[in-house]
Specification:
71 residues; alpha+beta; three-stranded antiparallel sheet; 5 helices; 35% helix; globular
Length: 71
């Protein structure tokens, strides 16, 4: 996350079928798939690698980019 924020990435998105609670405890929040960009939804992960029931979670990195001590 730190490296992503330092690179100017503002948001991380992931799909998981088993680790939702792990990522939720680290600040990731449920995100509707249809709220994501078309280009992201066109990736192999969204198209076929992760099943439809997989949880979609996202974390805003903008606060981390401003203050690297933000968890």
């Amino acid at each position: 996350e730190r490296r992503a924020a330092e690179a100017g990435i503002e948001r991380l998105v992931l799909l998981t079928t088993t680790a939702g609670p792990f990522f939720a405890a680290r600040g990731y929040r449920p995100t509707p798939r249809d709220a994501l960009s078309d280009s992201l939804r066109a990736t192999p992960e969204f198209q076929s690698l992760c099943p439809a029931p997989a949880a979609c979670l996202a974390r805003d990195l903008s606060a981390r980019a401003r203050d690297p001590h933000v968890a």
